[in-house]
Write a structure and sequence with these properties.
Number of strands: 4
Number of domains: 1
Order of helices and strands: EEEEHH
Number of helices: 2
Strand order of the largest sheet: 1-2
Strand content: 25-35%
Distance between the termini: 17 Å
Radius of gyration: 12 Å
Helix content: 25-40%
């Protein structure tokens, strides 16, 4: 991985979530699907975007 790539792991009980972030166009994909196709509700999409909006990285 290059210096601009980030990786994170979250666990709860027996579930594991992995997140890979890299510099790009600002498009968010979940399981190779666009964010709006994976999360149909606007509130779920908002929750995903909130951390990026907080640090002004929504377009990167």
């Amino acid at each position: 991985m290059s210096e601009a790539d980030f990786y994170g792991t979250g666990r709860r009980k027996t579930s594991t979530a992995r997140v890979y972030m890299k510099t790009g166009s600002g498009e968010i994909t979940v399981n190779n699907r666009p964010l709006d196709k994976f999360f149909g509700r606007q509130t779920a999409q908002m929750i995903v975007r909130q951390p990026l909006e907080l640090i002004n990285l929504t377009d990167k």
